[in-house]
């Protein structure tokens, strides 16, 4: 979870405090992640492209690109909260679409979470910029779809490596499209490499390695810590304020999701 929150912190500090642009950050991040995972799989005697799919790679690229563009203005905490909320909502929505039913407690939790998300996005001095908030929500939806697809792709580490490798052409095309406005410096590139190779490549590999030993509910609840870690990191490392609106919205979104996850087991329609 520290790695996942680290992605928010690295991206935010790079786009706020260095010359690197969002498209270039995305391209370097994906390339660094692909290289790290390729080396990891080669050391195990596996081929990097033997897993994954082009659709999953497109979703991975969509997540990374919108994530970067959103963090041009969003704080680390707000971005992580919007991302996490959108991911969970997407996966819950997929469950409903495929025939799952929610009990009263789960419906109440979902309503609380949606209310918190709406409260966070309502106009006002403390509201996040609408364009950037929308970008992060799209990033979360993309990651949610990527996670759903990932359940069908066999060995998660092998699939992740294949997806990163396939995402490189998409990221390169984005970087080329924005070349006239591109900018980069050593520190910005270093943050992108760290985000791709360490907090994304190795972070995802580590998470997928421990995931089989966790129950689904445990894994979902553990992920509730990511926005909190990002908020603390943003306050300590980036001097970002933690507003009352953010605290209230966080309590509603994360609390509502926790209620939904921990509620009675879902039943399938017959």
Question: Could you walk me through the main structural features you see in this protein, from its secondary elements to its overall organization?
Answer:
The chain has 270 residues and is mainly α. The protein is built from 11 helices and 2 strands. Strands 1-2 form a two-stranded antiparallel sheet. Helix 2 crosses helix 3 (54-70) and helix 5 runs antiparallel to helix 11. The longest helix is centred in the last third of the chain and has 25 residues, at 186-210. The chain starts with a helix and ends with a strand. Mean pLDDT is 84; it is low at 266-270.
Question: What is the gist of this entry?
Answer:
The chain is mainly alpha-helical and 270 residues long. The protein is built from eleven helices and two strands; from the N terminus they run ααααβαααααααβ.
Helix content: over 70%
Order of helices and strands: HHHHEHHHHHHHE
Give the total of beta strands.
Answer: 2
Residue runs with pLDDT of under 50 for 5 or more positions? 266-270
Main beta-sheet annotation = 2 strands, antiparallel
Radius of gyration: 18 Å
Highlighted features:
single chain; 270 residues; globular
Helices and strands in order:
Blueprint: H1 2-17, H2 22-43, H3 54-70, H4 76-97, E1 100-101, H5 104-121, H6 130-150, H7 156-177, H8 186-210, H9 216-222, H10 225-237, H11 244-262, E2 267-268
Helix pairs in contact: 1-4, 1-8, 1-10, 2-3, 2-7, 2-8, 3-6, 3-7, 4-6, 4-10, 4-11, 5-11, 7-8
């Amino acid at each position: 979870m520290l790695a996942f929150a680290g992605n928010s912190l690295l991206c935010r500090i790079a786009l706020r405090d260095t010359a690197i642009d969002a498209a270039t950050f995305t391209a370097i991040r994906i390339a660094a992640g692909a290289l790290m995972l390729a080396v990891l799989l080669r050391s195990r005697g596996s081929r990097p492209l033997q897993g994954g799919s082009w659709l999953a790679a497109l979703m991975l690229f969509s997540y990374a690109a919108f994530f970067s563009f959103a963090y041009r203005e969003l704080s680390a905490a707000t971005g992580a909260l919007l991302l996490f909320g959108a991911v969970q909502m997407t996966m819950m929505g997929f469950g409903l679409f495929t025939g799952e039913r929610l009990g009263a407690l789960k419906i109440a939790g979902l309503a609380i979470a949606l209310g918190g998300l709406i409260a966070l996005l309502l106009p006002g001095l403390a509201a996040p910029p609408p364009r950037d908030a929308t970008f992060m929500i799209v990033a979360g939806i993309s990651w949610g779809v990527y996670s759903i697809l990932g359940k069908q792709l066999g060995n998660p580490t092998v699939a992740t490596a294949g997806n990163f490798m396939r995402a490189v052409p998409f990221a390169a095309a984005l970087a080329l499209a924005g070349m006239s406005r591109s900018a980069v410096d050593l520190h910005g590139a270093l943050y992108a490499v760290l985000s791709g190779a360490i907090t994304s490549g190795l972070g995802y590999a580590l998470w997928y390695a421990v995931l089989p030993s966790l129950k689904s509910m445990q894994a979902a609840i553990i992920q509730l810590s990511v926005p909190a870690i990002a908020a603390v990191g943003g306050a300590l490392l980036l001097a970002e304020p933690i507003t009352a609106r953010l605290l209230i919205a966080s309590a509603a979104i994360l609390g509502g999701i926790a209620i939904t996850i921990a509620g009675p087991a879902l039943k399938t329609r017959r």
